[in-house]
Amino acid sequence: MQRRLLIGAIAGAAAFAGAGWAWWRERAEDSADVAHLWSLSFETPGGGELAMESLRGRPLIVNFWATWCAPCVRELPALDRFHSDFMASGWQVLGLAVDRLQPVERFLAKTPVAFPIAIAGLEGTELALRLGNLKGALPYSIVLDAKGRIRHRKLGEIDFEELRGWALSI
C-alpha cells in the first residue's frame, strides 16, 4: 500500500513538473514573439506608418483580418464598438490586415472603423503564427495586457460580449 502511494506521489510530482515546464516554455516563447511584435512598423491606409512601440503600455487587442474573409468582416462592428466603449478605460484595438493596401483602402471607404488599421500583408500570416495562430486561419485575435503579456488568443469570429469579458478579466 505504501509503495503504491509512493509511486502515485512520484507520478503526480512528475506530471506537475512537466506541466510547469510546458507553462514556463510557452511563456518564454510568448515573450520573444511579443518583443518581436513591438519592434515592427506597418503601413497605414491613407499613408503613414504605425510603429507598434507607440501602442505599448496599455492593454491592446490585435485583430488579424482580411477584406476577403467573411467572419473577419462580420466581427469588425464588435471590435469598433469595443474600441468606442473601452477607449476611455485605456484599451486599444488594432486591426492588422493580412491583405494588400488597395483592397483595404477600398473596403474602409465603404465600411469605416474608428480604431487604427495597418497593413501586415502576407507577412501578417507569419506574424500571427508566431503569436500562436497555429492553423494560419483568419480571423485571429490576441489580447495583450498593459505589460505586453499575451492574456488571450482567439481563432475565429469574436463578439462584443467576449471582448468585454476579456477586458474585465485583465
Topology:
Blueprint: H1 2-38, E1 41-43, E2 49-51, E3 60-65, H2 70-86, E4 92-97, H3 101-110, E5 117-119, H4 123-130, E6 140-144, E7 150-155, H5 160-169
Key words describing this protein structure:
Glutaredoxin; two-stranded antiparallel sheet; 48% helix; 5 helices; five-stranded mixed beta sheet; alpha/beta; globular; 170 residues
Structure notes:
Helix 2 crosses helix 5. Helices cover 48% and strands 19% of the residues. The protein is α/β, with parallel strands linked by helices. Strand 6 (140-144) and strand 7 form a beta hairpin. It has a single domain (38-169), classed as Glutaredoxin (3-Layer(aba) Sandwich), CATH 3.40.30.
Strand content bin: 15-25%
Number of domains: 1
CATH topology: Glutaredoxin
List SSEs in N-to-C order. HEEEHEHEHEEH
Number of helices: 5
Rg on CA atoms, Å: 19 Å
Count all strands and give the number: 7
CATH architecture: 3-Layer(aba) Sandwich
CATH class: Alpha Beta
Structural class designation: alpha/beta
Mean pLDDT: 87
Which geometry do the CA atoms define? globular
Largest sheet: 5 strands, mixed
Percent helix, as a range, is 40-55%
User: How far apart lie the N and C ends?
Assistant: 46 Å
Q: Strand order of the main beta sheet, please?
A: 5-4-3-6-7
The CATH homologous superfamily is termed: Glutaredoxin
Uncertain ranges: 11-29
